[in-house]
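Retro notes - structure team

What went well: the batch runner handled both jobs without manual restarts.
What didn't: labels got mixed up in the shared folder, which is why I'm recording both outputs here explicitly, each with its sequence directly above its tokens.

Job 1
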Amino acid sequence: MSKLEEEIQSRKTFAIISHPDAGKTTLTEKLLYFGGAIHEAGTVKGKKNTKHATSDWMEIEKQRGISVTSSVMEFHYKDHQINILDTPGHEDFSEDTYRTLTAADSATMLIDAAKGVEAQTKKLFKVCSMRGIPIFTFINKLDRQGRDPFELMEEMENLLGIRSYPMNWPIGMGMDFYGIYDRHSKKVELYNADNPSHVEIKQTIGPDDPMLDEIIDPSLLSQFREEMELLDVAGDPYDEPKIKNGELTPVFFGSAISNFGVQNFLEHFLNLAPTPVGRDSDQGFIEPVQKTFSGFVFKIQANMNPKHRDRIAFLRITSGKYTQGMQVNHVRLNKTMRLAQPTQFLAQDRNIVKEAYAGDIIGLYDPGTFRIGDTLADGSDFQFDEMPHFSPEHFAAISVKDAMKHKSFEKGLQQLTEEGAVQLFQTYNKYPEQQIIGVVGVLQFEVMEYRLKNEYNADIRLEKLPFSIARWVNGEPEELETFKKRQKNLALDRDGRIVALFDNEFQMNMTKDKYPKLTFYENSYMK
């Protein structure tokens, strides 16, 4: 292998997806801890003197104890460079999460052992399965009483449509949690409630090893052996091609907060997870090991450092190698630009990158040049497939309270729109014209209000609107013109495309029946 191939093969880039409170930020912290990236894991919620989670940097995140923006973290573990996309678990931040998944090559799905598959997990899983990426499952909080593991696996199949193969299996649960049995290495990892981070590992010859009789309660051991037999006879067989195609999910059990089972997961994950995957472009598939550098912008975040009022574009390198100061083509603008000081991240901490490879995520200082979905390529003019926008579900008319602050208000609104934090619409055929904000979840209004006030010194007025569905409209020109004249509640998106806003599905279906020559699209790219 060449040096380029070696470096790319060592990369693993994945996202962690879950419902709120399943323990996602905690799991992220423990992975960073094992990689030596942090020396002390923070707590997500706690007293004033406790540390905040390393992956939460925005003030509102610290106040609420939730992740509201996607963080990017990179660290080394053994011979691997690992890039974690820590996506927001909160249901109100799903569009940012959806977009971030386009930069990942695999996903780790975190499930609370007591709650099972929850609403947000289903939404995020759907986006992953549409891309056919491998999904690894970590069933968390085994040190608390939860649901039967077989029941959880059956629920995953029924609700998500994916079969599962347990890589390890719990012995007991909650107060009776003894540990996990690794089905591949035939090792038992014993849980110590008094000192969870101290893991005693014992090699066995299998579930029937007499040595287990000496260390595990007889009734729990008997149940464990029955379950092992059932898995071997009736469970899905281990199938690596199906895992790589996202048709079979390897399942791991553990407790992230107790640091138990996380290293077992990490070791198996690094063996099974894919190395960087290429992407489709308008000139064919772009392979990671191509010598030519290329990448795409999947996220823009302003004011990560409030003291410097900066704006960072997150770029996923898709092929080749980045070297400091290299010149690339900004394809949309047809402009050559120099990448002077890209950074890599551990939440607030940044390091200037001298070189990076396909699979890595780098942050580019953005003076307003980038949009989500932009392609950068070394001497080429191909463009990667467009980034999806998702239909907002909540809408509000927005205006600034103080007319003197109008300029900073407009600047802030433009930046938040370009970041993808909100979608901005302008009313069509309605006077006076009105600006409308569309978001996937209602808490995004609060974040927008907070950021406009704190970062742009603009107090806003929000008036909630009754709409719950947006559809981009196209079709036969004559019927489209009639539609634009007669239909109420139309708007233009930031690129001037017609969008119809509806209160409910019944209203939308009535309109579809009335205009059969028009097509109503769920996203802005008419797909």
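Job 2
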Amino acid sequence: MSAVTSQNETRRFYLKEDLLASFVVFLVALPLSLGLALVAGYPFEKAAAVGLISGAIGGVVVGFFSGCPLQVSGAANGAAVTVAAFASELGFEALGLIVMLAGVIQLAGGALRLGPVFRAVSPALIQGMLAGIGILIFASQFHVMVDDTPPGTGKEFGGVINLWSISDAVLKGFTVDAHRPAALIGLVTIGLIVLWNDRAPRMLKMVPAPLVGVGVATFIAWRFGFDVKYVPAPDRLIDAISFPDTASFARVSEGAIWIAALTLAFVSGAESLLTATAVDAMQRHTPRTRYNKELIAQGVGNFLCGAIGVLPVSGVIVRSSANVMAGARTRLSTMLHGVWILLFITMLPDVLRMIPVASLAAVLVYAGAKLIKLGFLRNLWQQDRAEAGIYVVTLGMVVATDVLTGIAVGVALALARLLYTFSTLEISVEEDKESGKTEINLRGAATFIRLPQLASALEALSPDAHIQVHLHDLNYIDHACLDLLLSWHQQHQSAGGELTIDWDELHGLFQQKAWGDGNGVARMAAT
């Protein structure tokens, strides 16, 4: 009986923690869901509802199936920018089909147990992609923050145009009467976010900074009657939903549609699974992520989002970290935050109509800037300049062209770098003629591609030389090169020479099980 009582008390404790966490995450998700639908290019009059419905699906549906219970899904930066590009290139009416197909691809990937594959993507590529997306969001929303239209919208090199013309937005915000109130709202929002993050009293730290910024900016706009754009909200939730029609499904055979769906599935999957990994590192309350299950959950969510024509979902680090830090213990917190979003949009649409668009844009300007992690690039440059190059090139291509091209170029560079790494072998030979000893240092990767090079270096040595082979700078050696070393050892020994190899220098890649038996035959095994 006492065990049952204890279990019930634990459940009540978790319910209390999850309720608090769900409300905190709801407050974090509210301004981001609203703003990211505007980034994605959905019609202005339904964008707010579209973003919030996505948040509700990410919470209730994805949260229920999730392989990472404390991860929170919803409208995300990468997916929003990707969708904006597809809307411009393929038409807004194709988005529902693209999102549905992306969900199907993710479902198939999870069923085929490909979830962990997304984790194998180079961190430099992922961070470069996210930084590029951050710049695109920053550049476009800076113009929206002064109640202006981004000049690069729908144009080739639109991201570059928006970035280059930020000075024009600044000038309008300071000098043009029609844009000055919105600029003031934007500055107040960003200032409060920064101030709250740095100076908020400990007792109020759980209140999200973006909510404080938007809340105060909304009050100022209402109190002084600012003539700015406000968030539109439909009177009925059903008005924000648009089902793909027959004409949309007829485009399922188009290659461009499938490329778009594959791109969205990759971007959403990568964001979700990398966020899940981060959540695992932040908490110890739940089991570690089941990546295939998480990919299936994202697929279910995106299929549903596409079916009703709303913004696709991904795991989001800002909301997920807020969930963990607020003390969530089970998936209930994620699911409840989706319920609160749904209740808010159905019961309080008039509150939405009071929020200035410039304030939401300011939240996204701040969020976009945070995605550009210069510290990550600095550390990468110090550790591996080739990886830093992949980061910079991926970022540049995302901004100059689009997310798909940036990913493609980044993957190509990563593969080229991998091929170079595993096809480069440096062999240095140092001979001491007085002692008759020869030192051979191998650096890089000893693979079958470099087998002739290694064989030539060995054959050029004196038959009776005393040779020491150093492997401490070797990062990989395949069976072909190992077999060459073993065979050459026997030949060299029979000719009166001596060969010594310190297998411990391979840093655990290989372990010498036995070197030489009574007949002089060498044996070793890979660990």
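One thing worth noting from job 2: Residues 2-39 form the longest helix (38 residues).
We'll revisit the folder naming next retro.
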